[in-house]
Specification:
mainly beta, 196 residues, 1 helix, two-stranded antiparallel sheet
């Protein structure tokens, strides 16, 4: 069986400023829904376990030790729903009172491309917004900051020239970017696309 996490020697020098992850859109929990994110050493870096049901309205992004980093909640607005991310302050369940970020879809009729606006309400140094670009029904995506720089890109994973399933992705994230925020945005994208 092929290994789904990246091997350290496969990472090239031109990607040295990037963190490389493997995203497996499966939970490690028996009968659970979620995803597992491995770092370049093959260790679990982040995980999302949704013990309730697929496409839930609330999920938790955790680190490798099970500490919750973000709670992600779907808000139903009149026509178009949005997702809000609450950053956890401590392991006892205390979160920020206001959402740290909000993700809304930019609706363009009859287009297969998907675009989402990420607004931040917490930290002025991050900037006003990010964009998430992807394709309807696909897990591949790009996260772009307010100045147009690609902060993260997820593509279908290939090993020895063979593409693995749609549920295994390679993520290249800028090393200077907040990795937990990137993972929270990828989780929201997976929930919107009904992959989690």
């Amino acid at each position: 069986m092929a290994r789904i996490h990246p091997k350290a020697e496969q990472i090239t020098n031109n990607l040295s400023e990037k963190e490389i992850y493997t995203i497996w859109m499966k939970s490690l929990m028996f009968h659970g829904n979620g995803c597992t994110i491995f770092n370049s050493k093959g260790e679990i870096a982040f995980r999302v376990d949704n013990y309730q049901q697929r496409c839930s309205t609330k999920v938790f992004l955790m680190d490798s030790e099970g500490q919750v980093l973000f709670s992600l909640t779907r808000k139903k607005l009149r026509i178009f729903p949005c997702w809000e991310g609450f950053k956890w302050i401590d392991s006892k369940g205390k979160t920020e009172r206001l959402p740290w970020f909000q993700v809304r879809r930019n609706h363009i009729i009859l287009r297969r491309n998907m675009s989402f606006q990420v607004s931040f309400k917490c930290d002025e140094k991050i900037g006003s917004c990010y964009k998430i670009l992807g394709l309807e029904g696909k897990s591949i995506l790009k996260i772009i900051n307010f100045s147009g720089q690609i902060l993260a890109e997820a593509i279908q994973k290939q090993t020895s020239g063979v593409a693995l399933g749609d549920d295994v992705l390679t993520l290249m994230a800028e090393a200077h970017a907040d990795q937990s925020l990137i993972m929270a945005l990828i989780t929201v994208y997976g929930l919107i696309n009904k992959k989690l």
